Amino acid sequence: MRAIWDELMQFPMTALAEEYESLREPIDAAILRVLASGRYVLEEELAEFENEFARYIGTRFAIGVGSGSSALTIALKAAGVGPGDEVITAPNTDNPTAAAIEHVGSSVVFVDTEPDTFNIDPEQVERKITSCTRVLLPIHLFGNPADMDAISDIAGRNNLMVIEDSALAAGALHRGQKTGTFGLIGCFSLAPSKILGAYGDAGMVVTDDEQIADRVRVLRNYGYAPGIDLDPANLLGGTTWEVRDHGYNSRLDAIQAAVRVKLKSLEARIGSRRKAAAIYDRLLEPLGVSTPMARPGMEPVYYAYNVMAEDRDLVRTALADDRISTRLYYNPPLHLQPAFAHLGHGPGSFPVLPIFPQITEQQQSWVASSLERAVGYRV
Ligand SMILES: *Cc1c(COP(=O)(O)O)cnc(C)c1O
Description:
By secondary structure, the protein is α/β, with parallel strands linked by helices. The chain is about 35% helix and about 10% strand.
């Protein structure tokens, strides 16, 4: 077997160029149309994409922003979260989740994750609520929905807002409802490697609340009241403007909005990820490694396929010898990072196997057999 695969490329973690190849014509056409239009920021292309994204996710509003990181910061600010407020989240996430909380001047409160889903543990959330707590900020880690029934219940009983970090989970379903739609605000990343990836940075804020939507539109555009003509010639010509807030320059530009082309085939790609995950589940089941756990009623989108192994580093080295890429995510986790040392926390992590819509069953068998040798069940 090895001889055959020796002929092939290194096993990647993603296949973004292959994906672009399969969509080249409509993507090129959309981007060239924008270039020729001379209208690059906050234009029709974005409005169309926002409408389509809102319809897909199932919210009244979707507002395009510059990144998933910005989506989180702007969401918190739009919700009126600031100094003196505490926001409860998990340390097992990308830095932007917790950084956003600090950016608006509020305090990060970390709660540990469930050992099987790696999502925030609702049972531990309740114990961390104080009179300063304003927001519960769950992450749907690796595209696996957090327990939104329990989180919504805790939020309701304690009069807290819920803001979801759905950066890795576009299209994931929690009992038939898309993640990002449970709380007051949902935040998505459209960075290239994410489930719906643009060709650069982009993000989306979704909400059913019209006031929040209006505030997000103001905040992403320098803090200007809507309707201001940004054309400098018109400003000089005497148009008045209104600076309503301390905003950001964080617009989803029209070229990145061309990613809406990919929205049409997103469900098919998510279907491929789910199928690949089911194949890994079957292939790895006899190996005794721990594979991703989805609770009943949850339909993850498998941004990543994570396994737990006793001797993680040895397993990674053995897989690398077979030219299979793995990644350690969030290692060490945020509560052990210098930027969050001030919170005073004291150590878990897991290797992640390649999964992407284009991966073939044959490739996955190779990964599984390599992993089998690596964990030493059949040397
Ligand atoms: C990627 C990511 C973000 C940040 O999104 P960007 O678009 O990269 O700024 C936030 N949270 C999580 C969990 C992510 O994976």
